Amino acid sequence: MWIILYSMIVKDIMKDPYVIEKDISLVEAARIMSSKSIGSLIFVSKNRAKGIVAEGDLLKNFGKNKKISEIMSRNIISVSQEENIDAALKLMKDNKIKRLPVMDKGKNLIGIITMTDIAANCDKLEEDFLIN
Q1: Which residue of 20, 125, 127, 130 sits 20 to 30 Å from the alpha carbon of 49, by its own alpha carbon?
Q2: How far apart are alpha carbons 31 and 1 in whole angstroms?
Q3: Which range marks the domain in which residue 108 is found?
Q4: Is this structure's pTM higher than 0.85?
């Protein structure tokens, strides 16, 4: 029997999120995401995440004269910084998403973790597996 235990947690590989605090156009959002080489923007008000706009949202609305508040996902699925990577991956898989905002105990946005971050750290992750 193989038992795999996972010890790496979200805060070990999360990155700083790119946040915006004003409602911007989709064109401006695309410019920011392109110039920063990021796949999402998180709309924040009073340190609380109110919505997330991903590159797929921009593609679906290409050519439309809209603001991010009109297309952003308001139902933000997030993860705790103390959660293990396995749980974060399960959340992504179950919800068919590629990124998770990371929240502290007070539900304040403190980071973001993406499938790319996990893939980039897979060499470190494999070291954290314990096989019996």
Answers
A1: 125
A2: 51
A3: 4-131
A4: no
DSSP letters for 44-105? EETTEEEEEEEHHHHHHTTT---BHHHHSB-S---EETTSBHHHHHHHHHHHT-SEEEEE-T
Torsion, Cα of 122, 126, 127, 130 (10° steps): 150
Residue 86 identity (one-letter amino acid): D
Q: Quick: pLDDT tens for 28-80.
A: 999 999 999 999 999 998 878 899 999 999 999 999 999 999 999 999 999 99
Domain count, the chain: 1
Between CA 130 and CA 4 the distance in angstroms is 6
Name the 3-class secondary structure at 40: strand
- State both tokens at 54: 């991903």
CB 42 within 8 A of CB 18: yes
Q: Say which CATH number the domain at 20 has.
A: 3.10.580.10
